[in-house]
Amino acid sequence: MKKNEMEKDILKKRLQSKIIFVILFLIVYISFAQILEFEGIMSFLSIPEGIIWLFKNFIPTQNSLKYLPIILKTGVHTILTAVTATTISGFFALIAAVLGSETIGINRFMKIFTKTVALFFRNMPVVAWSLILLFSFKQSEFTGFLALFFVSFGYLMRTFTETVDEVGEGVAEALKSTGASYFQIVFQGIIPSIASQLISWLLYYIENGIREATLIGVLTGTGIGFVFDLYYKSNRYDGAGLVILVILIIVIIIELLSNKIRKEMM
């Protein structure tokens, strides 16, 4: 009996907690909606109309095919920029990961420094990087490259460091016991043992970089993102729709290739 009563009390408390949470959520939502003058019901009711407008205007037409050559050209530039920026950032991220590793790092200062740098680059939004670099370097391919480089560097540095720490400890200890030097441990032990994981992470962030390159292009005036922004602002919605379709196809193809390469390596 006591056990049943305890279970009922627990269920009752959980139900009360859920009710309180829902009430608090509604109070917060209504309060902020009033402050921002947000008409929630009208906004939700306008969703079907917005979807109909989207399909009416953004479906590529026969006329939009004339934009295809420039879209494909900028699409290739976007892919090359993303691959180049991510690959180069991966190289520097690997150096930083080795120097700042808990298992094979040089010293405590370097470990703290590399973690701080990785934290800074990782938490700076891609939009912020794009705008800062746009003001510094103006509209150019180099601006888009740098934005992708900095964003990829932060994430790759973190994942590479974790990979080195996870896999490298046993390898480092084994090689140290044989009298191997620091560079032998790194280049003949650690990196070969984690090479497949490093490449897998690099491929993943190349995929991610191609997706982010579109937004970066809109902000910095480069690549396929700039073409989309141009067509959209000039009311050539069918052309903008074709850009979206090409971006979707590019992302799917890159993802399929990346997954296939990763499976072959595993």
TrEMBL record:
It is found in: Cell membrane. Residues 75-258 form the ABC transmembrane type-1 domain. It is a multi-pass membrane protein. Keywords: Cell membrane, Membrane, Transmembrane, Transmembrane helix, Transport. InterPro entries: MetI-like (IPR000515), MetI-like_sf (IPR035906). The chain crosses the membrane at residues 20-36, 79-100, 112-135, 181-206, 213-233, 239-257. One of its GO terms (biological process) is transmembrane transport. Signal peptide: none annotated. Pfam families: BPD_transp_1 (PF00528). GO terms for cellular component: plasma membrane. Belongs to the binding-protein-dependent transport system permease family. This is Putative phosphonate ABC transporter, permease protein PhnE. The lineage of its organism: Bacteria, Fusobacteriati, Fusobacteriota, Fusobacteriia, Fusobacteriales.
